[in-house]
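Figure S7 source data.
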Amino acid sequence: MSNLNKDTAELTIDGKVFTLPVVEGSMGERALDISKLLQETGYITLDTGYKNTGSCVSTITYLDGNKGILRYRGYDIEDLAANCSFVEVAYLLLHGRLPNEIELESFKGLIERFALIHEDMIHFFDHFPSHTSPMSILSVMVNSLCHYYPEMSDDPLDDFEVTSTRLISKIRTIAAFSYKKSMGHPLVYPRSDLSYCGNFLNMMFDKPVKPYVVRPEVVAALNKLLILHADHEQNCSTSTVRLVGSAGVNLYAAISTGINALWGPLHGGANEAVIEMLETIYADDCNFEKYINKAKDKNDPFRLSGFGHRVYRTYDPRGKIIKKACDEILNVLEISDPLLDLAHTLEEIVLRDEYFIERHLFPNVDFYSGIIYRALGIPTNMFTVMFALGRLPGWIAQWKEMREDPSTRIGRPRQVYAGETARKFVPLDERS
Ligand code: SDX
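Tokens for the predicted s-citryldethia Coenzyme A complex:
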């Protein structure tokens, strides 16, 4: 295949030459537009796991997997994590620009207005088995929210500001309430004098017998973590939200499916799996060699959680920031976590090992995040819930972009069929 010129490529099939348009993004990424391939050639493409396939043109997040660059709406993640609140970054993702003071105050006012959930929803928590995963509860509760807002059955883009902000505010309350219910503790309601993150922490940890002190350093650490998880272009859960959303379901139903996709241990569930892996290695006399060999063994399903990434071929820029924040917050809280030392050692061993070097396997966003969540007092089974709280604005922004794109059609991939060819039907009484 050769490029005729900047804007087209040639594809020769069975001696016939087809011309494919080349699409170039604002950062110079180039793609072959195959939207007419089947109609013109009779061929489809096959790309299991979509490693080579772009699903859309997007203006929200830019990744450079080789250079380790991550930008939301053009702003480097390092600048946003160092200078913004999560609410500011949520506004940026939803609206395409950072808010001015008036816009930010108005956005915060909507978040405060929508912080409560309908009291009837609190009874939902009483009917989950005690061992139910908080991710499962979150998905059910978010999906159920739409029934309290029948106006959403119309075009939710009509009232997007309210619809989106309502969910960003309530998901925090749902998460904290599910934790309190799981502990058998009285619910703590949101307060108007606390920030987005301060409210969440207070709803999680305040107790009648021992009031929770909302420490600025802890709020800052949570803000940073939520910002770092806020969007990541067309990852598994975001692609799920787009695909389900393309069928025309309401926003809350689409987000609920994204929560389920994120739950997977290969995706957002990895932050919980990392802590479980570190605890296993710690309990096994820190036998690093055993687990490194297991991770390399093709016959062993064990993989090093928190390492590797479909896009990054270098250190995940989010992982770098979280690793540094780990040391900072544990120092401030005067916590010494043996798992942090173990994580550092494991990283050093992996980054020196040819097997992992050859495969460009570096720590990703999930490798150190759990250490911070532990330090903040968040239980391991809620780590992926924290990922979902962070990713929500990104999912919503991507859903909105999909719904507003006039080229959007219902997502419906094809396949290569490898099953039985046509067979003559045999009635039941004639079958052997
Ligand atoms: C997230 O997409 C996103 O942007 C996701 C995310 C986001 O913000 O939305 O960044 C969040 O999901 C981060 C990833 C969290 N998952 C984990 O930490 C789970 C452990 N990682 C792996 O399972 C894996 O690296 C994936 C799932 C992240 C990526 O899988 P790929 O791209 O399909 O890569 P692969 O499985 O084909 O691996 C390529 C090679 C294989 O070896 P070979 O067959 O070439 O010999 O690398 C090996 C794999 O066996 N490999 C690992 C490994 N990850 C890949 N070997 C040991 N340990 C690992 N963690």
